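Can't paste images in this forum, so I'm doing it all in text. The chain is below; anyone willing to post the predicted C-alpha cells underneath?
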Amino acid sequence: MARRQNATAADRLMHRVRDRIRARHYSLRTEKAYLHWIRRYILFHGRRHPKELGREELEAFLSSLATRSKVSAATQNQALSALLFLYRDVLLESEGQRGTVPWLDNVTRAKKPERLPVVLSSLEVQRLLAQLDGELWLQAALMYGSGLRVSEVVGIRIQDLDLDKRSLMVRGGKGQKDRTVMVGDRLVPHLEAQRQRSRTRWEQDRAEGRGGVSLPFALARKYPQAPTDFGWFWLFPAEDFCRDVYSRAPVRHHADLARLQRGFKSALRKAGIDKAATPHTLRHSFATHLLQSGADIRTIQELLFFNDTATTKIYTHVVGRVGSG
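Text version of the structure:
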C-alpha cells in the first residue's frame, strides 16, 4: 500500500514538473532529460518524495553518477540542473518559498574538462560529402556551409528559407533563440529542388485529407490553419505520420535526426577518416575554416550565435593562432 501511495505521489509530482517545464517553454529535449533525471533521483532514494530529501541526498546521488555510472561532467551537471529546477521551480515556487533554501545555492557543479573540438580539414569535408547523396548530402552541406546544429537543419520550415537573399532563419535554436545564417550559392539549386519535393509531399497530404505538421507550444490553437499551411511545412519532412507530443493528434514531423547521424557515421567510415567526428563536427569545421580564411572572432560569434567571444576563441587554439591579433 505504501509503495502504491509513493508511486501515485511521484506520478503527480512528474505531472507538475512537466506542466512547469511547458509553462517555461523549454524544448522537448530538455523536458525529456529533466524528467529522466528526476525519476532516477527518486528511485535512487527508494521512492522517497524529494521534499523529504536535502543537500546530503542530492550530493550522494550526484556522486553515484560519477563513481558508479561513470558519467561525464556535462551529464552530471545536466542532472544537477534538473534537480535544481525541481526544487526551485516546482516544489518551492508552488509553496511560495522560491529561493529560501540556502543549500541549493551551495551545491558544487562538476568541472568540465577543457577539450578542443574535433575538426575536419577542407579535404576531409569534401571526401565526407562525396559519400553522401540526396537529402543527407544536402543536410550535411547545410551544416557545414551555414554552421547549423543537427536539430536546426532537420527543423527548417519552408517559410524560414529565403533563397533570393541567400539566407536562412533558424528559429528556436539553443536557448530558444532565433538567428539568421547565410546560405552558399552552390546550395541554392539543391534547396529549390528540395522545396519542390516538399511541396509535392504537402500537396499529397492535402489531397488525402491528412493532418498537418507539428507546431511548437500553443501555435496550433492560436493559428488553426497553420498546421496545413505550406509555409509551416518542413523542408525535410518525415516519411510517416506520428503522434504530436502535446496534442496527441497525428501529425507529420520533420526528418529523424538519427537518420542523419547514421548516414554521417557510414560516410565517415567510407571516406577513410579516422577521427571521432559526429555531424556536429561540421559546425566546428565551419567556424575553424572561417577563422583560417581571415574572418574575425566577432563575425564567427554572430554566425554561431554564441553569447560571448570567450566561447568562440576556442577555435583559435584549433588553428594555432592564439595571440595573433
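The first helix runs from residue 2 to 23. The longest strand covers residues 237-243.
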